[in-house]
Fold these 2 entries.
Entry 1:
Amino acid sequence: MQIDTPGPVLRAWTFEDEESLARHANNPRIAGMMRDEFPSPYTPGDARRFIVAAMDTASHLYLAIDANGEAVGSIGIQPFDDVRRRTAEIGYWLSESLWGRGIVTDAVRSIVPIAFGRFDIIRLEAGVISNNPASMRVLEKCGFVREAVHRKAITKNGATFDEVVYAHFGDEGGW
């Protein structure tokens, strides 16, 4: 799968991306905004494990954010199950060297309609650590609404933060 955006290309991960993934993901500032399962340091072995998981697209969609022919980040859709089976989560990260250029905004705008078309969902949500206002701005620019603040819900690197929850509904925003 490949999705062209006004900026980056979103495409399937390949084993040729291992080196660039490990290099761009190996950043404590990125890891500090991600779940603990995102390793820090991020090694080539971590990159290989992620790429293997990303290639199994039966239950989720994880795409490389490609700028100038190089994987510089990731964006993904992970559907929930059980009573939340009509909801999916969106997540993303980008190499720090490319922050502030609208790349993630283009990526999110482009993947939202794909998510609603590919999965049987009516809701797409994102939980953002409260000390990440840039990610909140991305979601707001892409039509997500701030729905809730879960107070003291996230503990990361020994500190406790609020989680700000954003949602997008498939029948709104012209998708």
Entry 2:
Amino acid sequence: MRAHQDRVFSAAVRLTANDAQAEDIAQETFVKAYERFAELRGNPAAGGWLKTVATNLAINHWNRYRRRWRFFGDWGSDSEEPGQAPPDPPAAETPIRDVLADERCAAVEAALRRLPPHHRIPLVLFHYEDLSYDEIAARLNCSLAKVKTDIRRARTALLPLLQQLGVDRESLEDPQ
């Protein structure tokens, strides 16, 4: 289980953007794993199971939080289609590229933390968890149009945050 602790925490912190909440979610994930230790011991799929549990717990946390504040107004939705997703960063071929890729990943993580939850969560689920728009809408219990709009708005809001952190648009789009 120790081998998966970083993966679990990372999945939780991407969704919550809060280290304390992510630690709580990671701890709850490992409590669930302890309860199923006999099934998970030596199972090669244990890492994926742990990440899925952490993701589901983070989404449940978000849904509870969102319901609490719904009284103060809904974020609304519209039917505009999201823009193109930025391409995945290229695989590094040299030590310098490794360092640059690590710096870019750290900047993306920092920028994601600055997004509001209603933008960050669908974006993380789409790009990091590889969920479809329909799956995200079902998990977040909201409309497909809202998911598409939130992802589009998140991408739009993410670019200036990345630029503030020193990541330019070309480094995100350049395949070399």
